[in-house]
Design a protein that fits this description.
The complex is a heterodimer of chains A (245) and B (155). Chain A is of the alpha+beta class. Chain A is built from 8 helices and 9 strands. Chain A folds into 2 domains: 36 residues; 198 residues, Alpha-Beta Plaits (2-Layer Sandwich), CATH 3.30.70.20. Chain B contains 6 helices and no strands. Classes of the chains: A alpha+beta (245), B mainly alpha (155).
Chain lengths: 245, 155
């Protein structure tokens, strides 16, 4: 019922946006309005958040993004790296023929047609209108089907009782979790912690922005130099794209 | 004669057991901590909050989670920010203690809540950094260097 209302509302908004785009000079207003979202307004699909990672700029030994992520979400370890929660993993790939090595951060790719959402039996895995794949931990029963379904191995399961969570990133035992694209920061018009850390460390390997806005930095870069999806053959239309792979 | 004494003793014992011990007649009412300088006035009148606070939080929960609506009026984080304060010694009661704003009443009413399995039970400025965050960092760095030695096998 509410989905129905939302979809027709979105359709209406979409149409009015299209009319707006004709009347307003191109590239001035619409995306700015979408970015500065007031607290009491629901997110819309006018925006699709995405990330572009340049593997040429990503340093093999650097873990700035992972450290920032762990800190932001208070990801704590229990000395068992195989099962400890990880939102970002650093993956090093080597071409056996040429010996060329590249390093990249791998996190939830926020697929448009997300397998985790397809398989979730309770509706806990869902896509927010602005393209962010999330787990509603209030509904999650911890079955871990989504972890099986995810081709990127992006999700973790919390096995232990946790303490010291932050107010902005609640997490607890018995639920599945993964990169939220720092949704709590996005809603405050901030960029994800990993992207911030990457540019603070002067690496600038990550760009965050609105894929639907042709004038955003990420869209312009993607248009100019392109960006590949990992496992593009699965046709998931991921929101995280890579250059240099 | 013995029978009579036994009967009287049993009767007295029965009466003694039935009569409640002085002072433990009922569970003491929880004391509600007043947020400093704000009195007991919440976002709705007291009687409404008592009865319906869970409805407000539940409604806001879905709106925040699924639609990104982050108004502060019925926000769970704001409940905590306003109501949970340190005592004179600077100590904040954990959500499992009866001195915690939420748990005081919930323990009295015998209602178990699991909000605090995931949510922080104190304002952000009073949250200490987890001791174990450091270990995960070390583990990661170790794993990374091990991976690199392996020739970059994906792990």
């Amino acid at each position: 019922m509410s989905d129905k209302i939302n979809s027709s509302r979105r359709e209406f908004l979409g149409k009015s946006a299209a009319v707006g785009a004709i009347t307003i000079a191109p590239g001035i207003l619409l995306h700015q309005v979408a970015n500065a979202k007031p607290d009491d307004v629901a997110v819309t699909d006018k925006v699709r958040w995405g990330m572009l990672i340049n593997t040429d700029k990503c340093d093999k030994g650097c873990t700035d993004c992972i450290d920032a992520c762990n800190n932001e979400h208070r990801l704590s370890g229990f000395g068992r790296p195989e099962t400890d929660a990880q939102y970002i993993r650093k993956v090093t790939l080597r071409d056996k023929q040429t010996g060329h090595e590249l390093s990249l951060p791998l996190m939830c790719q926020h697929c448009e047609t997300a397998p985790c959402v397809d398989v979730c039996p309770t509706g806990a895995s869902f896509k927010r209108a602005d393209g962010i794949a999330l787990v509603d931990k209030h509904i999650c029963i911890g079955c871990r089907y989504c972890m099986m379904a995810c081709p990127y191995k992006a999700r973790s399961f919390v096995h232990e009782n946790l303490t010291n969570q932050t107010l902005s990133a609640p997490r607890g035992k018995g639920t599945v979790e993964s990169c939220t694209l720092c949704v709590h920061r996005i809603d405050k018009d901030q960029i994800p912690a990993c992207v911030e850390a990457c540019s603070k460390g002067k690496h600038d390997a990550m760009i965050f922005g609105d894929l639907n806005d042709p004038n955003s930095k990420i869209s312009k870069e993607l248009e100019k130099h392109g960006g590949k999806q990992i496992r593009a053959d699965l046709q998931l239309n991921t929101a995280v794209r890579y250059q240099g792979i | 004669m013995t029978n009579r004494i036994l009967r009287i003793t049993t009767l007295l014992l029965g009466l003694f057991l039935l009569y409640p011990a002085p002072g433990s007649a009922e569970t003491p009412l929880p004391t509600i901590h007043e947020p400093e300088g704000k009195g007991l006035k919440c976002v709705e009148p007291e009687e409404v909050m008592r009865r319906d606070h869970m409805e407000f939080i539940l409604h806001q929960r879905d709106e925040t989670m699924h639609e990104g609506i982050r108004t502060s009026k019925y926000s769970f984080a704001e409940c905590i920010n306003c109501h949970v304060e340190p005592d004179e010694k600077g100590h904040i009661a954990s959500s499992k203690s009866k001195d915690h704003f939420c748990n005081g009443c919930h323990e009295y009413a015998a209602v178990t809540i699991d909000c605090f399995e995931c949510h922080a039970d104190r304002p952000q400025k009073h949250i200490k950094r987890g001791k174990k965050t450091a270990t995960i960092q070390q583990d990661l760095h170790q794993m990374l260097s091990a991976n690199n030695d392996n020739g970059g096998e994906l792990k």
